[in-house]
């Protein structure tokens, strides 16, 4: 899991443990939120790209009762076991966000059919509330029509290349 990966790298001799950045896209965004909350002192920054922090709520709406959860559910032709749904059942990613008080970058598509703008805006608000300096939270919104998805990926790659240099210096210099 992500916590084990962070623990591995923070003890690696070639890694500056004070500069570990968690980057998660979609479901990886949810995983990064949870990992940063579980070990907030281990990461220096958090980057969430189209973060699917809606996953627990979405599946709880689909399976409102534990008895409704089947042994296997297929999503995009990937089998997911009952254990997954049981483990996310009581997760509250928004509550977990309140445990991380360091720089956060959230990237969201304005027309994302899965990850809602409202959830990302709520996350931005919570992270700003938890951080003593609002300039530590950045929210980037892309026009994510299907035609320019590749352009968005390239733009995110460019943002990530400059993120550590520009964004971190802005956050820590004021």
Strand content: 15-25%
Largest sheet data: 4 strands, parallel
| Strand segment tally | 6
The low-pLDDT segments are none
Going by helix content, strand content and strand pairing, the class is: alpha/beta
**What fraction, in percent, of the residue positions are helical?**
40-55%
| Sheet with most strands: strand arrangement | 1-2-5-6
Helical stretch count?
7
The rounded distance between the terminal residues' Cα atoms is: 34 Å
| N-to-C series of helices and strands | HEHEHEEHHEHEH
Radius of gyration: 17 Å
Mean pLDDT: 84
Give the overall form.
globular
Keywords:
globular; two-stranded antiparallel sheet; 46% helix; alpha/beta; single chain; four-stranded parallel beta sheet; 17% strand; 174 residues
Strands, helices and their partners?
Blueprint: H1 2-10, E1 21-25, H2 27-38, E2 45-49, H3 55-62, E3 72-75, E4 78-81, H4 82-88, H5 93-97, E5 104-109, H6 117-130, E6 137-142, H7 149-173
Parallel strand pairs: 1-2, 2-5, 5-6
Antiparallel strand pairs: 3-4
Structure summary:
The chain is of the alpha/beta class. The protein is built from 7 helices and 6 strands; from the N terminus they run αβαβαββααβαβα.
Question: What would you say this structure looks like, in words?
Answer:
The protein has seven helices and six strands, in the order αβαβαββααβαβα. It is α/β, with parallel strands linked by helices and 174 residues long. The protein has a four-stranded parallel sheet, sandwiched between helices. The protein is globular, with a radius of gyration of 17 Å.
């Amino acid at each position: 899991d992500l916590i084990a990966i962070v623990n591995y790298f923070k003890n690696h001799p070639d890694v500056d443990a004070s500069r570990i950045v968690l980057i998660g896209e979609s479901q990886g965004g949810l995983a990064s939120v949870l990992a940063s909350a579980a070990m907030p002192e281990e990461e220096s920054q958090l980057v969430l790209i189209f973060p699917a922090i809606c996953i627990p709520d979405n599946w709880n709406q689909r399976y409102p009762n534990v008895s409704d959860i089947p042994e296997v559910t297929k999503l995009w032709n990937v089998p997911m076991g009952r254990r997954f749904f049981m483990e996310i059942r009581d997760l509250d990613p928004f509550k977990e966000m309140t445990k991380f008080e360091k720089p956060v970058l959230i990237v969201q598509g304005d027309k994302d059919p899965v990850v809602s703008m409202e959830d990302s805006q709520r996350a931005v608000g919570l992270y700003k509330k938890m951080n003593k300096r609002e300039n530590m939270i950045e929210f980037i919104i892309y026009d994510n029509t299907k035609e320019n998805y590749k352009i968005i990926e390239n733009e995110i790659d460019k943002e990530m290349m400059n993120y550590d240099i520009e964004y971190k210096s802005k956050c820590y210099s004021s």
